[in-house]
Specification:
Blueprint lengths: L3 H6 L1 H9 L6 H40 L4 H32 L21 E5 L12 H8 L4 H7 L10 H19 L4 E2 L5 E3 H7 L11 E2 L4 E3 L4 H5 L5 E3 L5 E10 L18 E11 L4 H18 L4 E5 L11 E9 L4 E10 L3 H6 L1 E4 L5 E3 L1 E9 H11 L7 E2 L13 E2 L3
Parallel strand pairs: 2-7, 6-12
Antiparallel strand pairs: 1-9, 3-5, 4-5, 7-8, 8-14, 9-10, 10-11, 11-14, 12-13, 15-16
Helix pairs in contact: 3-4
Amino acid sequence: MLDVKRLRENEADVRRRLARRGKPLDALDQALALDRARREKLTRAEELKNRRNTVSKDIGRLKKEGADTAVAQREMRALGEEIAALDAGVRAAEAERDARLLTIPNTPHDSTPDGADAAANPVARAWGEPRPLPFPAKTHVELGAALGLFDFERAARMTGAGFPLYYGAGAQLERALIQFLLDLHTREHGYTEIAPPFVCNTAAMTGTGQLPKMKEDMYYIPSDDLYLIPTAEVPVTNLYREEIIAAPLPVKLTAYTPCFRREAGAAGRETRGLIRVHQFDKVEMVKFCDPATSYDELETLVRDAEDALQRLGLPYRVLALCAGDLSFAAAKCYDIELWAPGQQAWLEVSSCSNFEDFQARRAGIRYRDSAGKVQFVHTLNGSGVALARLVVALLEHYQQPDGSVVIPEPLRPYMGGRAALTRG
């Protein structure tokens, strides 16, 4: 949520920054109008309360003098009624203003590139070269069928399309990747592992910005007011909801969770195999940072995700998202994409964002600065990384002419020493 004080004092700057997203500013106009109406009502109510205090004193004086207080009493009642109506109007305007504020996205950071959509995202850097295959590349669907790694048909019968079922060595590979990523982030990158709930309530979803904008893309249990989490970012960030963080900053947390996304607007996109699914596993990294260092921390967050991909030997590129392609809550974001030979395409496996104090204001997450003053913390998160597309890229990158798939060296201890996935 944007700071109301910032909107009042720096309206032109906020408008300029939001305009870079290329979206209408109607909600901003409405929020500012409601804020002005609220302040006008508040000012008038304060004036009347001062008048009421004066009248109250007059009534006391008149009573001591034995004078008639009827006129003053009538004025007192009229003032009370008008003040009550104004106070109710202040509360209503404030509630409506805050509801509008929840629909306004974050302002892009100055270092976020200009651009209208994903086509304008520049490549910040790349690592490795796509492996040239001296034979026709198979897709992960073909490889998985031949090696017995997945069973999409049985999954569809028990749940519906878009929910994967890993089988045998496929399930072991998924578990190996999760364990490898958690061990890397906790043992070498300095993150503390947590195991959060896989469902969160409306307040938690609102705190990180999933609500109200992305309601249609999430699975909801109305009887319990619970959502299946679309990312571990939600429960991990909400760990400190409505708290003042006592631990020294930065606080670095990592967690594995499954992620659930309806993706209601994704009709017509690629849905075969693991490219676009409604449930997938992910290891997430979250940081709570001092505002003065949050952009340095963003760079190290991206490097931590890159380190995992480098150790797996998978070529990737890092994109700096332009203002028009930023997520709702992000001020700056990098995407990491892996090359998948069977798809002949780059697949996003990580998104690393600095939300500045946008989520912290919504969720009430604060810290004490060096002077002891309570301030809103900066929150960051990044996929470290998402597994469905990681599995796609890994299988397609390491496929061999005989249909087997070489297992990267760092994963072999988690696969019982196995060096390759083979038939039978």
